[in-house]
Amino acid sequence: MLLSLTKRPINPTKFSDRLLARLRYPASFHAFHTYPRLNAAYNMPQSPKIVKVEGLPADEAKWVEFQKISWQDQTGKNRVWEAAARKTRGKAGVDAVAISTIIRHPSRPPSTIIILQYRPPVDAVCVELPAGLVDEGESPSDASVRELHEETGYKGKLQFISPTIVSDPGLSTANMQLATVEVNLKEGDADPEQALDDGEFIERVVVPLDELYDRLVQYDKEGKTVDARLWHWAAGYHAAKTML
């Protein structure tokens, strides 16, 4: 293992970012932040980049399809709506889950897990909740626990799962459920290893809940894009603390 460490290239930008983070954030942040390990998210030979954007023929689309929806409005007038739809929806009727995590530790403040990953459609590193598609024959509840473990390494217990919700109904038929999973840690527990699939490049970050809103604001200033679901969750928590 030590030999392999010496052979991997060091990314000086990543190193400087971590150094700046140590200067920027308080001590409570350092107690929780999971610094980069040698896994799929780090020490890559290059940064991701868009090579070409072109139209996608319907017979080549694996994950999505365009739909032409003919409907009548409240006056009886015929109208047409264009929408994108996932091709992977299973019998559960739910496309995906996103997971808000509550980490409890004997000597540390309650925290949550966010992930950073590059998203080609917006050509940016996105700051998100752990999330993933519901597999065929799987319930959204089971998918939430599985996806949290795969993307972050942490195992927890489902505490709540939302009704089926939508985030962009003017564009897509996609839906999801939002789960809350509780992770209970003990003193001395080691950081778990992620179980990422091939092609997944995900950085996990553990953040004290009281610092989450400010951390997202800082990520935006750094040029990252914050996912709406995570922002709404953090903004709601922030409003409850500061405005009510």
UniProtKB/TrEMBL annotation:
One of its GO terms (biological process) is ribose phosphate metabolic process. Pfam families: NUDIX (PF00293). InterPro entries: NUDIX_hydrolase-like_dom_sf, NUDIX_hydrolase_dom. Gene3D superfamilies: Nucleoside Triphosphate Pyrophosphohydrolase. One of its GO terms (molecular function) is ADP-ribose diphosphatase activity. Residues 94-230 form the Nudix hydrolase domain. SUPFAM superfamilies: Nudix. PANTHER family: ADP-RIBOSE DIPHOSPHATASE, UDP/ADP-SUGAR PYROPHOSPHATASE. This is Nudix hydrolase domain-containing protein. It comes from Neocucurbitaria cava.
